[in-house]
Amino acid sequence: MPNFKNLPSKLPAGKTSIFSVMSGLARKHKAIDLSQGFPNFETDNHLKDLVCKAMKDGYNQYPPMSGVWALRTRIAEKIAALYDICYDFETEILVTNGATQALYCAINAFVHPGDEVIVFKPAYDSYEPDIKLAGGKPVLVELKGKNFKIDWQEVEAKITSKTRMIIINTPHNPTGTVLSKNDMQQLEKLIRCTNIILLSDEVYEHLIFDDEVHESASKFPGLAERAIVCASFGKTFHNTGWKMGYCVAPEVLMKEIIKLHQATVFCVNHPMQRAFAEYLKKPEHYLQLGDFYQQKRDKFFDLMQGSGFKGTPSKGTYFQVMDYSKITDEPDVDFAKRLITEHGLAAIPVSVFHKNGKDHKQLRFCFAKTDETLEKAAEILHKL
């Protein structure tokens, strides 16, 4: 029998995702799940019908590797209308198996052993493992204060001759903050005379509130010329289980990303691509999402008034970070697990996203839920 116990691990510090841990506990204890970022309401029946129609119409074999022509055209039209930039649908747009695959391919296409990648913490938990798998080194910059702002002077100090890439995420998971026009202009100025690649995670681009504006990297010429922008259909259209996303980038960068795409998944679900191509013909399907989710955010935030939890209303995404320090001083991971096992409610401890697991006594709640679910959750939280 072979002995694999001592095989070297490419991710020796890798742990099971906190999302899997909390969702697993939630299922085990039949808890209300406000942890993992998925809606508990259905996607549009019309979109589901379009998928079924595509299957019945025979679109069940391999599609083109980069995505079907019609969908890439719709994506190009959408971006041009929103951000006033024209991406070539043939050479600069790639349909991916969710945004996470787009992120993986973008990082592994350009990060080589010894390269450094600047990551802002707290951060989505796939960035650092992807960098390490490529042999790179994550260079961590902690967001500052309760409003999670970027200190651009600190970023400048972190840039070295080894800096290959900077990763930004706006609207930001887990904090619900958004980068301002001034932030993007400062970044643009900072990397103007470098060969640094920008990876911009914009999966929540349409989930933005309070008359804020999504400042896509695509809007800024000095960023767009070096930016890989990743987006998600699953987050946008309430079907995260479909694992559908895309990325856009200048042709010189996209050529390398496609090589990774070809070697990993090659292509993406054909009938779903056909369905999205048809669905995107009506911009209201995504332009109305900000108002829809702002109502959800307001509902949850109003329900939490008078509880022991405190926070600032999220500016984007479908997450709300709340401080629980007036309730208990126990570590957030312990409190989150106890919240499931003793009270029947799942949330995500924010320390897992922070540099060195720094604990600010905060939990992240997903408010992409029915009003009934939010009301039941708030009732539990008020009792703590």
TrEMBL record:
It comes from the Bacteria. The keyword Transferase applies. Residues 31-380 form the Aminotransferase class I/classII large domain. SUPFAM superfamilies: PLP-dependent transferases. Pfam families: Aminotran_1_2. It is an enzyme of class 2 (transferase). The keyword Ribosomal protein does not apply. Keywords: Aminotransferase, Pyridoxal phosphate, Transferase. One of its GO terms (molecular function) is methionine-oxo-acid transaminase activity. This is Methionine aminotransferase. It comes from Salegentibacter maritimus. The lineage of its organism: Bacteria, Pseudomonadati, Bacteroidota, Flavobacteriia, Flavobacteriales.
